[in-house]
Amino acid sequence: MAEPRASRLEGICVVNVGHYRSGSTTLAGAATLLGLNVYRKFPDLTQEQYQDILHDPEKAVTKYFSTPDAMDFLLGIIKEHDLVCDGWFALLAHAPHWLLKLEKEANQNGIHLKFVASVRDPSATIQSELQHWVRHGLEAKAGLSHEDREKLPLSLKIRTDKHLESIQKLKEQGKVTILPLEEADSIWPKELTKVSKLSEERWAEAFKTVGKKNANPPLPIEGILLTMRIGNTPQSDTMIRSVERLLDELEQDSLCRYMVVLAIDADEESSDGTQDLLQRLHSRANSHYQMHSFHSIINEDRDNTQLLPLCRIWENMAVKAWEEGADWVVLLGDDIRIQCSYHYRAIYRSFLEISERLKVPFGFGSPWWNDTTFPGFPTFPCIGKAHYAIFRGLIPPHRRGVFVNQDLDPYLQCLYLKFKAAPLVSEAKLSNDTGGNVGASQARYQRIEAIGWRDFVWEDIDPIRQHIHRIDGSADEALVLDVIVPSYRVRLEYLEPICSLTIPDYLCVQFIIIVDNVKKLLQVARLLSDTDRELSIHEAERILEARLSTGNNRVRVRCNRNNVGASASRNRGLDESAAEFFLNLDDDLIPNSDLLEHYGQQLLRSVSDPTVVGLIGLVHFPRHPELPLKYAAVLMSYLTFMFEIAGRTDMYDHPAWGVTANILFRRTPVRFDEAYAKTGGGEDVDFSLRVAGNEGKLIPVPRARVVHPFWEGSVWNLGSHFFNWAIGDGGLLSRFPKYTYWSFPNLSETLFAFIPMALLAGCPEKVIFWIPLFVLVDVIVDCSNRDEYMHRCSLLKHERHPLFYFLAHILANIYVVVLECGRLWGHLKRWNLTCVCHRFDWHCGRLPNAPCNFRKREKLKFTGFCIMMVLVELLVANNLSWSWKAFALRGSNETCPAF
């Protein structure tokens, strides 16, 4: 092959109309070695063209050649090249009339076309092309449905058979020379000499040098890890048949290549059941081409009373599989049912996408099966071979004592979340008849949790990060965030928009819905499933989860067995979460679709600052010109002030706390205090202050916005809501004394002190006068400050009648009085009498003058209360006393003395 580069074939172009994956790579390699100009590019195609090429290639060719520039484009390729393959040329056999027309056009341009067709065994062609579809993501590019993907091997077979029939007819017409790939080293040189003017010897030497090339690499090997106790009982045969059924279901994916590693307990090594299974698996490995190999290992001997060390067994099997050449491993069981006939292709493609995106060798990451028994949970992660290169095992060495038989699967998946290399392969479905979800079925062994794995998993990703840097992969890392939503009402009109939020590429997000109302969950699930039968809680969780996951976001639904309240539900969400950050949202708000984008952008700016413990979003209450009086009063009462604190950056840069309706925190061991009211009130302040401590800070993100509709119901319902709210937040005074200060008695405390005195003095009638007069004083003091009054009016954002403002102001003060009554009642319930006449600084020191200003206003009000009591006593007490006696005597027919 030391000859100088061959000149271009004069006036001749060899066109290979052989099918894709039938030998064009070998032919092109030899031609290139001979110095010929070779063209074998695949054109960019539309989704419709991909589908036509698959299902109706004749139609695809006809539509393409009917375009104005198609013939000129192909003639231009022919003029510039000696050999053309693939692309549209490989489909010409499906439309022979276009082949003849192309030949005619080429002749008119002084080029003589020589048609050849490389062919190979049809089954090998189909397998090779099926792998090509996976490697290049053509199933997605063609927009194939689930049914189309299941039938893809059949569709390729039909197209291949039609192509071979057409090639045979063209050969009979003398138009095409057939080149069988199996005889590339013997027949090809002879036939190509006839069409190319190059000697047979040169072609033969070129093919000898090139060999039979395949554009596809060897198929990756999936390591199937199995372990079980077989025994010698009648159940043994059932288990063996279940294993064979599992492998049969794996082989439904015709592309699948797998090995099996079986772990056997030491005391069962020689049992009849074990020997039978070993013999069958060895036999299968020898007779089924899809099964690459079979290997067995012996588990460490243990006492029957010892806990099953499933994680250690899993580790040993995985290492064995990787050492024997597995590209990824997955732990399955005899109780698994495969529900997808193209699972291997889907997982293979997932590993390829990870490799392409991160620019790392194939076999990095942890895609996971879609377990329909336990949706949304990575019960069956596929761990790539790169993991073994990183950790020299399945479990990082320093964690091997932590994992016994639980939590290793989510831990392994979480290790790769940061790199967005742990996707759910939604198409690869299976079911788990035993084990899996605690609420779904009973495991065959006692579950032992791995304590603390959700926290230390983020410490364990550094070796993975170093590995990526070492091989010059992409260093882009995602931020892992869970959105936690406790829900009592289970209203789909609110939950669906939350679970369908747009997720930026740099975030890895899961939505965790904690339902705190079993009855409501079952009711909603029955409506969604259109059934009247009784549903289990587990079934209801799955039904709601499926509904909320329709937006392709990952959603996990969990239901408390009893109503435990907002704080406990949020804590359960935190216990379910293993994310770096968590976002609390309420279940009665409407988020902006870009909510996560704005949070994400701020996280990117703040993530490296350890003092930033959280971000506060804006909870906006709607304003409009027709806002009812009862809701206008809510705004003017300042009871929604902290909901919208993220928009008040003019007051201070770092609020001390934010409401749990829309607030994001860095991962923390702190939990919500469940001593607060079930319906909420104070737990958000308590949590924020404990998380921030002395050094932490919260950053407002005003563009991270949600709309919170006003609470439904009458004025009475709103008052009841605020009363219960204050019962809880009154507990803050004893929890955080540094933010507590004394003040003059407010209206509720004043009445609490003097009503018993009036009753003991036999003057209950005074109370009838005190209450309206005290409210009047309360309103007058607040209205007397014009700036304050105008500011309250401005909160409505729309011009209203002066009388509307005044009435709303009065109602706002009544709401505050009700709130104060609730707070007082909370003090009494908790026997915190020292908290009476004390206030909590809601600004937590951010506004130093706030307590002083508030105390001055309460001083004015209390002075007014005292004056009113004196006036009542001096002006009407005597008359009231006689009136009361007259009223009493009138009922007893006694004579009333004259006034």
UniProtKB/TrEMBL annotation:
Keywords: Glycosyltransferase, Membrane, Transferase, Transmembrane, Transmembrane helix
MF annotations from Gene Ontology: glycosyltransferase activity
Residues annotated as transmembrane: 803-822, 862-882
Boundaries of every Glycosyltransferase 2-like domain copy: 542-598
Pfam families: Glycos_transf_2
Family membership noted in the UniProt record: Belongs to the glycosyltransferase 2 family.
PANTHER family, per the entry: GALACTOFURANOSYLTRANSFERASE GLFT2 (PTHR43179:SF12), RHAMNOSYLTRANSFERASE WBBL (PTHR43179)
Name of the protein this chain belongs to: Glycosyltransferase 2-like domain-containing protein
Organism: Cylindrotheca closterium
